[in-house]
Amino acid sequence: MATVADLRLATAENLRWAQRDLTEFFGAYAGADPIELRDALLEFYPDFVQVYGEQGAELAAEFYDEARAAALASGQYRASLAPPVPQEQAVGVAKWAIGPAFEDNWDSALQQLVGASTRLIQQQGRDTMRWNVDRDPTAVGWRRETRAGSCQFCRMLADRGGVYSKKSAYFAAHDNCRCVVAPSWDQSARRSRVPDFKTSERTSRMKPAQREAAKRQVKQWLADNADKLT
């Protein structure tokens, strides 16, 4: 699995199984008291995210080692897994996602939960790539790989294949984002010109007005940096 396409397919398969399990869990409580759903979800969800997140991280580590070998990088290095998603982050996402169920809108609750889970499950894998780029002496940095039909936000951050070399660069991702992180050992790779996008990593705890403000921040950031890709 030494190509980004292979990594993307393996990641998609992991997400597909996760979505199946989450949908089955949610369906078991259809029509129940939302409080019962919430209590069960808060017990189930952190472990669910950790299990599928770790599988994604293992895929990322395997890809890293194979890509490193294919790049003929010097020295000995073996990828390790980044830490899992913090339990409190998973709990916060779950509490936010099921909010519509308390307004008898279970479909929206499930949609929000699946979208947020896509982001959280991929987080450990993405962190694993960045984690190892930081520790691998010969790695130059990492780049963002989008898929066909990606949103403007992701295309902007991808910067036409530019490599992020700043050690502290954060991989910004939205719910349902399918971008992947790819490491680079190419010393001649063009460094990304797109500034880091900085916003709260805990949008799940935001009130509706705060989330709208965050969306406006994203739109303003896109407008301010539109010329970076010209």
UniProtKB/TrEMBL annotation:
Residue numbers spanned by region Disordered: 190-230
Composition-biased stretches (Basic and acidic residues): 193-215
Annotated InterPro entries: VG15
One Pfam family in the UniProt entry: VG15
Domain of life: Bacteria
Protein name (Swiss-Prot/TrEMBL): MuF-like minor capsid protein
Organism: Leucobacter chromiisoli
